[in-house]
Amino acid sequence: xxxxxxxxxxxxxxxxxxxxxxxxxxxxxxxxxxxxxxxxxxxxxxxxxxxxxxxxxxxxxxxxxxxxxxxxxxxxxxxxxxxxxxxxxxxxxxxxxxxxxxxxxxxxxxxxxxxxxxxxxxxxxxxxxxxxxxxxxxxxxxxxxxxxxxxxxxxxxxxxxxxxxxxxxxxxxxxxxxxxxxxxxxxxxxxxxxxxxxxxxxxxxxxxxxxxxxxxxxxxxxxxxxxxxxxxxxxxxxxxxxxxxxxxxxxxxxxxxxxxxxxxxxxxxxx
Length: 271
Ligand SMILES: N[C@@H](CCC(=O)N[C@@H](CS)C(=O)NCC(=O)O)C(=O)O
Description:
globular; binds glutathione
């Protein structure tokens, strides 16, 4: 049986959850608290996923540590049920997926948050600054030399720089432009079908999760196309979508429940 290590509110976990659900791949849910207990930074999880991010998919002879790989795995499992199997459509589907992954969801989400709540900036600075210092300190003591911890510390410094070197309003403006261009370039879907035809593809998965995030951050006005709006309305009624716990708004209660549930996740990573 496959195990999916993920976090309830995490964007890339949602990509993995939706892809696996729509492809009909069953997994055991292993919830992590990446916000408060920061279980992704534990040594146990680091051995599984050196990037210390969610999602991770593990099974017999399988270890995928990036949502794009889990998405590709799901497409492979779905076979002819997804349009990725159609060689003629593959380049166009790839293009949508590549353009999607070129969007920094973190910059979009955080710049919006900081524009709406500027008083949070010192808190974000303190948290990210503290994190990189503690990762560096752990790297000094790490039995394996601590390369992955140093890389993560560097990533946190870069995250901080992205939020502080450029005013959040300016970041938000350029993120809006990028997302708007991405949505404008999507193909014209048929109603009640996939973006590329009569079945789903990896493109449907990433666009659905992106629209869910736009909805959660109150940025859905970036979607000006009626055809994609209709596709999105219908997509949300799918059983796969409903079972994948895709957040279209911030769910305070679910957030707390997931944090509590994550305490019971066995983080003994090695069998
Ligand atoms: N490229 C990775 C990015 C994963 C990622 O950044 N996940 C976020 C949650 S959406 C995370 O784990 N953040 C916690 C951290 O970086 O410490 C993927 O697509 O899986």
